[in-house]
Amino acid sequence: MSDRILLIEDDPRLAEMVKNYLGEAGFSVSVTGTGGAGIALEARETFDALILDLMLPDMDGLDVCRQVSARGETPILMLTARGDAMDRVVGLEMGADDYLPKPFEPRELLARLRAILRRGKRGAAAEVLRFGRLEIDVGARQARLDGAVCDLTGYQFSMLLTMAQHAGRVMSRDAIMDMMKNEKLEAFDRSIDVHISRIRAAIEDDAKKPRRVITVRGAGYVFAKAQD
């Protein structure tokens, strides 16, 4: 299957050139001309990488980079016509994986894109959180108990991952919601408590006596560091 690339670029001629060049190299490329449209499309669909122009008509590309990076692990290649090195530094600190100054050679764009895709796939393949019999596979976006895949929605997996990344720390409902604010919401945005109950049904041996996601009365929830 072809890698899917999202290109956010407001110059239609450059966007068409990049789309055609990458298409000939075997990629499937979707194009948007504004940051807002790009953020919305990236939230709805899954892409293997994002090529992002920092100079956009509706918002700063650095803001796009920040929002996309906060939501997931999609590799980002920035395109910049600005000469200020600080823009590149800030972009990399916000989560971009590489940058390419304009004007650029299409072959260099392709080489850099392939490089960040390789790095992303190696990192995703290696990142599995283990808590006793429970595994949380970040790359596959799966939780497995005794090797069997747990029945979780995408939103519930993201919530579980957020708590697991803060294992041992009591998290209030507000804190969980704040960390989840860039995730695509489930229909009607069900309460945290409802999602927690469904996560427990999927990962606990006995959802009525949870030992992995524990309620701390009056404070919130804690994901147990030590599990069997």
Describe this structure in words.
There is one protein chain. It is built from eight helices and twelve strands. The model has no long low-confidence stretch (mean pLDDT about 85). With about 230 residues, it is of the alpha/beta class. Helix content is about 40%, strand content about 20%. The chain has helices at about 10-25, 35-45, 60-70, 85-95, 105-125, 155-165, 175-180, 190-205; strands at about 5-10, 30, 50-55, 75-80, 100, 130, 135, 140-145, 150, 170, 215, 220-225. The strands form three sheets. Strands 2-1-3-4-5 form a five-stranded parallel beta sheet, with helices on both faces. A four-stranded antiparallel beta sheet has the order 6-7-8-9. α2 packs parallel to α3 and α6 packs across α8 (about 190-205). The two termini are about 40 Å apart.
In short:
The protein has helices at residues 12-24, 35-44, 61-71, 85-93, 106-126, 154-164, 173-179, 192-203; strands at residues 4-8, 28-32, 49-53, 76-80, 98-101, 128-131, 134-137, 142-145, 148-149, 170-171, 213-216, 220-223. Helix 2 (35-44) packs parallel to helix 3 (61-71). Helices cover 41% and strands 21% of the residues.
